[in-house]
Specification:
Length: 383
């Protein structure tokens, strides 16, 4: 089993290294904002100017509840505020099917949508969406997940490397609390390899953890990239790792809260829940509840309202024909095919028991009632 794990990691590393090497994320240019190498062809979309029909395509509803409970309503709200009497076509039922997501985009363009906001299932496959929209002079805003196309118009997300650094730093600051004897063993359950964000999160985490691997304080048993961010797959991966290592795992780097729930289920089956450091991301209700119960240690809060508002601001600028430099501040993100995409990257926040009340609760991102079921009053100053 160890050999199979090792081969799996090598295959993933070989496939991901080209993208990782190309996405040394942002560069700031003092004078002008880098735009597409050449203008889009056609005139149907008018580059978004005067556009009153906007298509929103999100990736799926399974891996994280955030897409429907947060992103959907917040994006609609921000775009309606940006464009008077806007018509919005919304899709989030591709469920991991890149071909279906392309078809949805084509349908939106056929309806006359003149700006597309795309949370891609597969950042490489979604280049076809960009090409199709470009032929109609319709700008594409990659939302939350980078689309690997030099012709992509704009990118709105969070600093993915910073997300991984926050997760890695929490482990670096706390791993010794889980050291019983000898080297501390860690496993890394990362996200979908088809999502550039998963590679960035991993890269950020490694930037903090690799020195600890090198000096022997931590031993990385396995890093696996989990297809489609599937929570059940993450549970099976964790169960297999525990069996292979005879439960000798002290740290579980897990890329998001959904997969952390699967990981915790595997730990419960081995009577290790609360005894292994578990990370997460997205500050979901389940994730925060697990932090309060002591089964998860931290999550990364990405203020989605701010991300959605950034899209609203960008859509408004396109509608008005305004310069977007004031929004991007010259920040660009590289694509593997040589693109430099004007970007708005908002800042993520690490959350643990000590700052739940002052972050996600204070921002009304989640409510006390959502997370305090079966939690003793007074826990973490929240319940």
């Amino acid at each position: 089993m160890k050999k199979a794990y090792h081969q799996n990691w090598l295959q993933i590393l070989c496939c991901g290294v080209l993208i990782l090497s190309a996405i040394l994320l942002t560069s700031c240019e003092s004078g002008t904002t880098t735009n597409n190498p050449s203008p889009a062809t056609g005139n149907g979309g008018n580059g978004g100017k005067g556009c009153t029909k906007v298509g929103i395509l999100l990736p799926e509803t399974v891996s994280s509840v955030r897409w429907e409970t947060k992103d959907h309503p917040l994006l609609v709200q921000a775009i309606k505020a940006a464009i008077p009497n806007v018509q919005i076509d919304y899709n989030n039922d591709a469920q991991g099917d890149s071909n279906l997501q392309l078809t949805q985009a084509q349908d939106d363009l056929a309806k006359g949508d003149c700006i597309l906001v795309v949370g891609a299932h597969d950042g490489v496959a979604a280049a076809d969406i960009v090409a199709t929209a470009r032929a109609r002079n319709v700008p594409v805003i990659a939302y939350d997940r980078l689309i690997q196309s030099k012709d992509l118009n704009y990118y709105v997300s969070f600093d993915g490397i910073k997300v991984g650094q926050l997760q890695g730093q929490y482990i670096a600051d706390h791993y010794q609390e889980y050291q019983k004897e000898g080297v501390v063993h860690i496993t890394m359950i990362s996200g979908s390899q088809t999502d550039t964000n998963a590679l960035l999160f991993s890269m950020g985490a490694h930037s903090v953890l690799d020195p600890l691997f090198a000096n022997g304080n931590l031993k990385n048993i396995l890093e696996t990239f989990t297809p489609n961010w599937d929570n059940n797959t993450a549970q099976a991966e964790m169960a297999a790792i525990l069996a292979d290592q005879q439960n000798n795992i002290q740290i579980a780097y897990v890329a998001n809260d959904g997969m952390a729930q699967g990981t915790i289920s595997a730990l419960k089956a081995a009577h290790l829940n609360g005894k292994v450091l578990v990370t997460g991301q997205d500050a979901t209700v389940a994730g925060i509840h697990s932090i309060l119960t002591g089964e998860q240690n931290m999550t990364v809060y990405k203020p989605i309202a701010k991300e959605a508002q950034s899209v609203g601001d960008l859509v408004k600028a396109l509608y008005n024909g305004s310069d977007i430099k004031a929004l991007t501040h010259g920040v660009t993100t590289s694509t593997y095919d040589g693109g430099n995409i004007p970007s708005i990257l908002d800042a993520p926040v690490a959350v643990d028991r000590n700052n739940i009340a002052s972050t996600v609760i204070a921002d009304n991102f989640i409510s006390k009632n959502d997370v305090c079921t079966d939690i003793p009053p007074g826990t973490a100053g929240v319940c």
